[in-house]
From TrEMBL:
Keyword Transmembrane among UniProt keywords: yes
Keyword check for Transmembrane: yes
Family annotation (Pfam families): Trep_Strep
Organism: Candidatus Enterococcus lowellii
Protein name as it appears in the record: Trep_Strep domain-containing protein
Length: 194
């Protein structure tokens, strides 16, 4: 595996910043529109609107590494912004796995991109997954940070079996839709005519 060139790292940084901006906007809109379920719906809603960013990254950095860097940056953000200690792991794992799928899986390019984007989109579930699978440890971490019972109950309102299914299914559906929309935008606005 060759290292990314400086120009490719710059493109990766630019698209990571744009992706962060889109995720931040989606987070604010969801917090205003559906305040209890905003964190549950964030990965799916972000996947719906970020397909074009992912495709542009693949176009400018057409080899292994760019996807991993983008996901890794989000993992670091989860780590340094006070999320549960293990929240960064899904971002790293999903990004690296998405990179392998995109550039090491011997399948049709469109299928590879769709699957890799779907896997990548699950990286944003990092702050959520411990709430389902490590609830006691997560509650203890909130208590150590000075959160009261009302806040903890509010945070865990959508954390049910149904909520888990909704989160997973919605990420898959929105990733498929996001790549479809992204391809339409890429063809219409970003591909050079020859």
């Amino acid at each position: 595996m060759k290292k990314l060139k400086m120009q490719e790292l710059i493109f990766t940084g630019v698209y990571t910043a744009i992706y962060f901006f889109v995720v931040a906007i989606v987070m604010v809109v969801l917090k205003l529109a559906v305040p209890v379920f905003d964190s549950l719906l964030l990965p799916a809603a972000s996947a719906l609107f970020s397909g074009i960013i992912y495709l542009l990254l693949l176009q400018k950095v057409p080899r292994f590494g760019g996807i991993s860097v983008m996901g890794g940056v989000f993992g670091l953000l989860f780590l340094i912004t006070g999320h549960f200690a293990l929240s960064f792991i899904p971002s790293f794992v999903c990004a690296i796995l998405a990179d392998f799928i995109q550039y090491r899986w011997n399948a049709d390019e469109k299928l590879r991109t769709l699957v890799s984007y779907t896997v990548f989109s699950f990286g944003l579930t990092g702050p959520l997954l411990p709430m389902w699978f490590m609830k006691n440890a997560y509650v203890d971490s909130l208590i150590r940070r000075g959160k009261d019972a009302d806040y903890i109950n509010y945070v865990f309102t959508p954390i049910t079996t149904t909520g888990f299914v909704v989160c997973v299914v919605s990420v898959i559906i929105c990733s498929i839709a996001g790549i479809y929309i992204g391809r339409k935008l890429l063809t219409k606005h970003f591909q050079t005519k020859r």
